[in-house]
Amino acid sequence: MSGFPGGDIMRLIIEDDFKKLSKRAAKIIANAIIKKPDLVLGLATGSTPLGTYKELIKMYNKENLDFSQVVTFNLDEYYNISQDDKNSYNYYMHENLFKHINIKEENINIPKGNVKEIKDYCKEYDKKIKKCGGIDLQLLGIGNNGHIGFNEPDKELNLRTHLTKLTKSTIEANARFFNSIKEVPDRAITMGLSSIMNSKKILLLASGKNKTNIIEELLTKDKATTEIPASALLMHSNLTVILDEDAACNYKKRMKKGEKDEIIN
Ligand code: PGA
Predict the structure, then answer these.
(1) With a 6 A CB cut-off, is 46 part of the ligand 1 pocket?
(2) Would you name the residues annotated as active-site residues?
(3) What is the pLDDT of residues 28-63, one digit of tens each?
(4) Ligand 1 atom 7, closest CA
(5) What is the pLDDT of residues 78-132, one digit of tens each?
């Protein structure tokens, strides 16, 4: 697949809609679990993975997909938030996936948003990923501003798990989950670029019209830049990107003009 900034190593899949995208993503995750029952699975939050989690729950119920040996690491958590807060990612993960499947509580890892010794805690998080043999498959969404996890556009990018300040655009984008924008935490703990890039396989999902600009930029720029943290993924040797038609719209227009070549579907 020459012509893509990811060269020959990126696989790009465009599905009609969010439902099909979610099914495709869930199938990839399920196959990885079937192949390696003790899969170390990196997970994401936000709106994008919700459909994938629904499909995985269906597979657990109808196809006996077994999560009993799966180990998970979540990308991030808001800072200064208790684990049972309804806006915490801990709550989100339990509500939207964990409580519906047979994963063991001790195999679930989500950064804690209310620890005091934050630097030590972040180091421990990375150490634990390493101790588990590294992440086999990392699921990712992308922010409108190109962030992955909470690695926000900046002059420099942190490599390891760290405490970070959220940008105005992320706070605005996430305000939809809160009663008011004032309630959105302005800091978060996130896995760093290296923690993410060390994953053996990466699955990046983007859905909806509001992602079409950033996807176009990501797939046509031919440059990795700290202004688009997701562009680091283009250097990964095993990256699959799944888009729906809405997210792919601008990119496909460019392609029609002959600027880019084929898509594997
Ligand atoms: P979203 O967020 O899935 O809610 O669009 C993605 C992200 O911010 O990484």
Answers:
(1) yes
(2) 76, 145, 147, 152
(3) 999 999 999 999 999 999 999 999 999 999 999 999
(4) 143
(5) 999 999 999 999 999 999 999 999 999 999 999 998 898 999 999 999 999 999 9
**Cβ of 210 less than 6 Å from ligand 1:** no
Residue owning tokens 């809160």? 178
Candidates 35, 88, 90, 30; CA nearest to 61 is 30
**Segment (H or E) for 207:** none
The amino acid that residue 33 corresponds to is I
Domain boundaries 7-202+213-243, CATH class: alpha beta
Residue 114 alpha carbon to ligand 1 centre in Å: 22
Q: Is 237 in the pocket of ligand 1 (CB under 6 A)?
A: no
> Does residue 233 sit in helix, strand or coil?
helix
- Locate the ligand 1 atom nearest the alpha carbon of residue 144 and give its number: 8
Q: Is the dihedral of CA 239, 240, 244, 248 positive or negative?
A: positive
Q: Alpha-carbon distance 110 to 191, whole Å?
A: 10
Q: Where are the domains of the chain?
A: 7-202+213-243
Name the residue of 96, 142, 174 whose CB sits within 8 Å of the most ligand 1 atoms, as the mutation to test its pocket.
142
